[in-house]
Amino acid sequence: MNLLLTSDLLVTRISRGKIKPEYAAFDSENLELAGLLIQTFEQHIGKTYGTLLAELEGYEEMNYRFIRGLSQLLGMRTVIETDAAVDPSLAREAVFQACGGMALSPAEKEETIQKAADKLLISVQELEKALWADLEENQVLKSFLPLSPAELIKQYNISLTQTLLFRAVDLDIWIRGDFQKILWKILRSGLMYSLEDTEEFTGKAEKPEELKSVNLHLDGPASLFRMSERYGNSFAKLFPTLLRSKGWRLKAGILHKGFQGKLILEFTLDVSEEAFKIPPEAARYSEALFSGLLVEENREGYETTKEGDGTERKAGKVDEVDKTGKAAETGFVPGFAEEEEKEAETQETDTEEAYDSTVEQAFGRLSLGSWKIKREPTILKAGRYAFVPDFSLKRGGMKVYLEIVGFWTPEYLQKKVEK
């Protein structure tokens, strides 16, 4: 799932050559606002997307970029569909053929619509609804996957960081210990990188053959001669994986276009950042708030019946049931972070057997005569630098390691050979 915000919604603070996103706090005001937006999306299930957008515009007067950013993330959790008796393109084609030119008067228009409706075997009302039912504002919100207000705030902060990194010229990541997950993510994405053993560089390595503390240097999207959206998206998607690591810090050069022209600003971040950690009190407040928001909506699903003694009893309607057969208490579902984590776990399950690309898969199936091809994603050290091959080619006593490069530039290949 692509969770980058559009560039106009990126909110940053610039000071003394440094840049940092304006992260949202987990305070009561932001949590209430996030809860209101989540409720609004839920209340518009079954309605046109246009009516949802119109109501959201009314909220944007309070804090345009923040509310629009939250709404954009919530929009990624919706399913909108065209609701029409016939395909809208067929409806328009039928009307065009029926008019035989131009229908200028109301009578001619009515006759044309009737002819087209008869041809399609639908009513006039169904035809008029179908004509432009495929426009986004006329499509119907079929489903929405909710999440807690606190989780939405957390994802907003993550998305701000990803959107900023999309403008990176380069990125340095330092990790001690748990670096394999982020490394495999880089390899699978085909990003341009170099891997350095920082302990070897400082002379503190106890076992030179092992990597415990590394520096990953990546060429950023803004370093390419022609900006690649695919490369930028893959680059930005590294961040959620990095968040699940321990003992990390990063530094990136961000390309900023301002009144003084193009500047390279420094962006730094480390594992201590609180913007990605939901405080316990915020989680509790968020859950209580979210449950309260649903009370009024859930009342519609209640029936009032009278007992034999004349007292009234309200019987609730269960809308969602979890895998254990128990009704969900708050309606919470996993947020973006959990979804990213599940996706990452799935991708990392078969790291050594899975291919990073169709090119690697095709190469692995080649027959090279007496050479034996083996899939071998291991880490090889060369001084303080490390090399991660994709295959080994073996014949007799000779063994050759091979890496298939994804994204590349001439400068990147030259530096890689030199290292």
Description:
By secondary structure, the chain is α+β, with helices and mostly antiparallel strands. Helix content is 41%, strand content 21%. It contains 15 helices and 16 strands. The chain has helices spanning 28-43, 49-59, 64-75, 88-99, 106-120, 124-131, 149-165, 180-189, 198-202, 229-236, 238-243, 280-299, 336-349, 358-364, 410-418; strands spanning 12-15, 18-21, 78-81, 140-144, 168-176, 193-197, 213-219, 248-258, 261-270, 303-306, 312-315, 372-375, 380-382, 385-387, 391-395, 398-402. The strands form five sheets. Strands 9-8-5-7-6-14-13 form a seven-stranded antiparallel sheet. The protein has a three-stranded antiparallel sheet with strand order 12-15-16, with no helix packed on it. A two-stranded antiparallel sheet has the order 1-2. A hairpin with a 2-residue loop joins strand 15 and strand 16 (398-402). Helix 1 (28-43) packs parallel to helix 12 (280-299) and helix 3 (64-75) crosses helix 7 (149-165). Mean pLDDT is 79; it is low at 205-209, 294-334 and 346-352.
Question: What's the gist of this structure?
Answer:
This protein is of the alpha+beta class and 419 residues long.
Q: Enumerate how many helices there are, as a single number.
A: 15
Helix and strand composition category: alpha+beta
What is the strand content? Answer: 15-25%
DSSP, total strands: 16
Major sheet: arrangement of strands: 9-8-5-7-6-14-13
* Mean pLDDT, all residues: 79
> Any low-confidence stretches, pLDDT <50, length ≥5?
205-209, 294-334, 346-352
Alpha-carbon Rg, integer:
28 Å
Name the assembly state. Answer: single chain
Measured distance between first and last alpha carbons: 35 Å
Helix content: 40-55%
Q: How many strands, what sense, and barrel or not for the largest sheet?
A: 7 strands, antiparallel
Shape: globular
